[in-house]
Amino acid sequence: MADLYGQYLRIKGEIDEAIQEVIRSSVFIKGGKVVDFEQNLGEYLQTSVVACGNGTDALQIAFMALGLQPGDEVITTPFTFVATVEVLALLGLKPVFVDVCPDHFNIDVSRIEAAITDRTRAILPVHLYGQNADMETLLGIARRHNLTVVEDAAQSIGADYLFTDGKIQKSGTLGRIGCTSFFPSKTLGAFGDGGALFTADPALAAKIRSIANHGMKVRYYYESVGMNSRLDSLQAAILDVKLKYLDRFIRARQQAAAWYDEHLADIGELSLPVRVPYSTHTFHQYTIRTEKRDELKEYLQRRGIPTMVYYPRAIHLQEAYLGLGYREGDFPVSERLTDTVLSLPMHTELTEEQLDYIVNAVKGFFTKGH
User: Fold this and answer.
1) Which residues pair with residue 123 across a beta bridge?
2) How far apart are CA 187 and CA 243, in angstroms?
């Protein structure tokens, strides 16, 4: 699903030197490499960046910084990785779900206003698989109802959002706070855990930085209850090297996606990823849909082709979140997607030979009448 070693070999010299530089300095925590990476990523995104321990921490820190109170409601989607909802539950906030669109998998903005109550404080869109949600519409709703927008951009770093007036912004920089993950398989991935928060508000950035460092304002003086969430210098050094190649990585994924599109387009029993007009797609995942998902997955596995189901059960039906009071049938699109989505191999090192093998196997499954 991801050839991390192959990618490393392409930039091995730079990565190895960056690691050795940190080792020589012996500054492993909060070193200059972290500062450099934050500044360079900030220049790429045109906003302020605060690095942290992982993407889940980024989401938790964001809501801690906003000062929401237990019982406050946050509108989000049930078709996502659990971290999106997990942090809300840990902080005593109430997730309020809105279904997703069946073609592009992101939150259905036409349903958001119906979910707003007098306890709603924020909207948390998830830019799933590498493509932005309809942020222009969503931001308009947030302004009308005086709500804060926090973006879960864990899968979409580098994606462009295209406003109707021609303005372009990077994913994660449109709301009050954006959050991302540097999990190794991400488009910009570390050699371990890592995450970051983005905001254009200097005061909020300072608060986020303090919370991520135990609530510390100056050394050993604490202005708020915080947490220990740090990106270490080794990971920062690796990410700083990879950042220079991020746009190249994205183009490689887009080219692989175009190959899939071209060679799988004629299979009537298969739905390919839809591109929305307001966003570029970084293809963290290339996710197809078919009623024969499980049979196709098994068929490909027998031929040495890995696939993954992101995700096999919607959050509102997970045992840990049944207490929210939702039932089967409440979010039919999300529930249907959990039965039909399948992600094919997607990474920067896919060769034409590998892609050809994959698409021929998929074609073979359907032509043999499975």
Assistant:
1) 75, 149
2) 10
Question: Quick check: 360 and 267 in contact, CB under 8 A?
Answer: no
Q: Which residue in 86, 92, 127 sits closest to 106, CA to CA?
A: 127
Torsion angles phi and psi, residue 198, rounded to 5: -125, 140
180 phi and psi, to 5 degrees?
-140, 170
Q: Tokens 């050993």 belong to which residue?
A: 220
- In contact, 187 and 170? CB cutoff 8 Å: no
The structure tokens 């939150």 sit at: 107
Specify the residue for token string 């804060």: 148
DSSP conformational letter for 228: B
| Comma-separated ranges of CATH 3.90.1150.10 domains in the chain | 246-367
Average pLDDT of the segment spanning 241-266 = 98
Residues 6+ apart with CB under 8 A from 70: 91, 92, 93
Q: What angle do CA 327, 309, 347 make, to 5 degrees?
A: 145
Q: What is the mean pLDDT of residues 86-94?
A: 98
CB–CB of 102/257 below 8 Å? no
The DSSP 8-state label assigned to residue 144 in this structure reads H
Topology (CATH level 3) of domain 246-367: Aspartate Aminotransferase, domain 1 (3.90.1150)
Q: Number of C-alpha atoms within 13 angstroms, CB side, residue 65? A: 31
Backbone torsions φ then ψ of 234, nearest 5 degrees: -65, -45
Task: Say how far apart CA 168 and CA 118 lie, in whole Å.
Answer: 33
- Residue 310: the pLDDT is 97
AA identity, residue 173:
T
Q: Which CATH class is domain 4-243?
A: alpha beta
Query: CA angle 316-318-320, nearest 5°?
Result: 105
Arithmetic mean of pLDDT, 172-195:
98
Cross-strand bridge partners of residue 83: none
Closest CA to 240 of 2, 18, 11: 18
